[in-house]
Amino acid sequence: MPTRPHGPTQTPHRLSFARPAGHWLEALPLGNGRIGAMPDGGVERERVRLNDGTAWSGSPASEFAHGRVGAATAREAVAEARRALAGGDHAAADRAVRRLQERWTQAYLPFGELTVGVDHPPGPVTGYSRRLDLRTAEHVVSYTAGGATVVRRTVVSHPDRALLMTIDVPRGPGLDLTLGLDSPLRILGHGADGRGAWLTTRMPTDVAPPHEPDAPSPVYDDDAVSLRGAMAVHWSHDGQDVPAGGAAAPGTRGGGALLAARGVRHAEIVLTTGTTFTAIGAAPRGDERDALEAARRDLDAAVERGAAALRERQRADHARLYERVELEWDAPDERGRQLAFLFHYGRYLLISASRAGGTPATLQGLWNDSMRPAWSANYTVNINTQMNYWPADVTDLPECLPPLFDLVEAVSVRGAKTARRLYDADGWCAHHNTDVWAYTSPVGRGEADPAWAFWPLAGGWLCRHLVDHVAFGAGLPFARDRAWPIVRGAARFLLDWLVELPDGTLGLSPSSSPENRFSTAAGPMAVDVSSAIDVGIARDVLTSVVALARDTGRPFDPVAEAARSALPRLPHPETDEDGTIREWRGPHVMAEPAHRHLSPLYEAFPGPGIRPESAAAVARTLDVRGDDSTGWSLAWKLALRARLRHTGRLPALIDLALREVDPGAVGEHGGLYPNRLSAHPPFQIDGNFGFTAAIAECVLQSHTGTVDLLPALPSDWPAGRLRGLVARPGVVVDLAWDDGRRLTGARLRGRGEGTGEVRVSWDGASVEVDLDRGPWTVRPGEGGTLLAVPG
C-alpha cells in the first residue's frame, strides 16, 4: 500500500517521518498511563503537547449542577413510556424517556506544552528524521543544521512518573537553547528558579461537548469546584546559563521562555505533572500549591535518580510488557509490515495510555489537543470504552486493566443511586456516557435523541470485562473481591428492570439499541421493547452471576438464585424476513441499514460467542451492514468475521483499516491518520485497540472452552508466527503457520499453577494437554490428527 508524499515509513515496530509534524495527527504519541506527550519534532522549536490523565473539567457535583430529575418524575416517565409502547406509540415513548435526561459528562482536557527553542548556526537542514520505536517507547529526532548535528530523544517513564528529553550535539558547535512552559488552561502562575521552572493552572468547571453548540464552553466559575494542576521542569546541561529575559518562546502565551542557556552540547530535561485529582468518582482535594508540590516531589526524585537510570528503568518497564507478544512474517511485504505495525501499535498505545494507579483510556486514549474535544473525549460506554480494553487479556496486558476496573467500581457506586432514583431498582446501572467523575445519568438536557441518550444497560456490558478477566485466569481473589460484587449489583438491577411480556417471556421496556433507529410514520425512532443487545446483555450478566456464585462459593446467593430462575424465560434472538438478526422485538425497517453500531450482534462478539443456529443470521446482518465504516466499527466487523471463520472476508476489512486518511477528512470512513491513530473521523483510539484484538481473534480463540489454533487466518496471509497470545483459562500460546495457512506448530504453557488440562484444536482435530505438567508442543499428525509432546 503506497504512502503519501512525505508520509511515514514503517517497519513492524517503528514509524518514521522525514519532516517535522505539521499537524497534531502527524505527531507521535508517548505516555506512561498518566503523562501523555505529542512531540512535533520541530527544528527551531520542539513543541511537546502534554496531557495528564487526571485533567478533566468539572467535579462529581457537575452531573447535577443544574438540578436533577426526581424519582417521582422518573417513575412517571418510565410508566408512560411502557404504556405508549404497549399501544405501539413510539413517538410518545420517545418523549417520555427524554424526561430522564440530565446535561452532559465532563471533558478530558489538554494539559500543557513544553517548548524547547533551538538557535542553530546559519545553514540548511539536512538528514532530518523523526521516529517512534515501539520496542523502546522512544521518540527520536535527528538532523544537521548549519554544521551542527542534533539528536533529541524523548521518553515518558511509568516507574518514575516523568518525561525525559535529552539533547545531544555530537558534531558541530554548541547550541543556544530556551525552555518554556504553557497551557491552554487558565494559568494561575509560573516562574523559574535556578535550573527549574514551573507553571500552575486551573481546569474549567464545565465544558460542554461540541454537539451542544449553544452552551458556553469552557466555563470557569469561581464559586464552583474544579481541578488545579501544575507542571514542573528541571534541566541540566554543559553550557552556560543566561537570563531568559521573560521573552516568550515561539508560539507560547503563558510561561514564555523561562530558562535559557548558551553553548549547549548535552542537555537533560525532566518534566512532571500534578493535579488535585484524588480518585475516580471522588472530589478534588487541595489547590494549585498542592498540585505543584506533588509534581515537584516526582521531579526531585527523578532528577536525583539521573537521566541514565530514568532511561534504563523506563526501557525495562516497557519491555517487560511490550516484548511478550510479536507478530512476524517469513517474507513480509509492505502491506504485511503495515499490518504487523498496527497490531503492535495497539498494544503499545494501551501500555502508554492505561496503567495501574491512573485513569482509563478515553475516546482518545491519553492524548487530546482540544479544549472542546469531540464527544468530550470521555468514556462512551456503549462500545468505545469497552473496545479500548479488548486486547488487554488476549495480548497479555493485564497490567493495563486496573484503571478500567477502578472506573467500573466507581460507576457501580454512583450508579446504585441512579438505578433507585430513575428506575426504582436495586443494584446499579449506567447509560451511554461516563467520565472520570463516574457520571451515570442519561445525557441530553431533555432534548437529545434517545438513540444516544437512553440506554441503561452500559453497566452490564462493562461487567463483561470483569467476567472475561476471571475467565483468562485472574484467580479467586479477583473473582471474589472485585468481580462478584460488581456483577451481582448489575444482575440485581436487571432482575428489577426486566418485565413480563404478553407471551410470558421476560423482556425490557423501554429499550433502545445504541445508537440506531427504525423508521415510523412519525419519523425515525429509537425506543421499543427488548432490543437484541439488551436481551443479550441481560442473559450474559445473569449467566455470569450464576457462574461467579458457584466459583466463589456462593451457590445459594439470592441474586444468583433469581438469575437462575429468570434465564430460561429470556428469548433468544429472532430473525427478520431478510435473514438478519432482529434488532428490536417488533419487526422494523431500519432508518440506516448500514449503521456503524453492530449492537444486535453483542452475543456473537464480544459476548460469549455465536450460537450455531444464529450463525447464518449474524453473517447476513454483517452483509447488510456492509464492510466500510468508522475505524472502530471496522474492527468490530473484523472480530465478528473472525468468530464466523469467514477467512475470505477478512482481507478487505484489513485493507479498509489500513488505508490513509487525511487529518482534515470528514464523514464515516475508517483508516489511519499519518501518525497511524485510527479515524472515525475524527480521531478515536478505539479503532487501534479493536484492530489488535481482532487480529488476535483471527489467530487464537478460546471462548468455547477449547484453545482453538488458527481458527480464522485471513485467506491472503503468508507464512508467519505470532508469539505470546493468551487463551482462557490462562494459557500462553506461541504458534506458526506455513504459506498454505496450515499450522506448523504451537507451544502452550500455563501462566501459573492450576491451569490444568485444556483441550487444544486445529482444523477439526483436537488433543488434551495437562499444563500443570509443564509446557507442551502441538503439531499436525498423520490422518488429520493433532499430536502433543511435552516441552
Automatic annotation (TrEMBL):
Residues 701-761 form the Alpha fucosidase A-like C-terminal domain. Residues 15-277 form the Glycosyl hydrolase family 95 N-terminal domain. Residues 319-698 form the Glycosyl hydrolase family 95 catalytic domain. InterPro entries: 6-hairpin_glycosidase_sf, AFCA-like_C, Alpha-L-fucosidase, GH95_cat, GH95_N_dom, Glyco_hydro_b. Keywords: Hydrolase. GO terms for molecular function: hydrolase activity. This is Glycoside hydrolase family 95 protein. It comes from Streptomyces violaceorubidus.
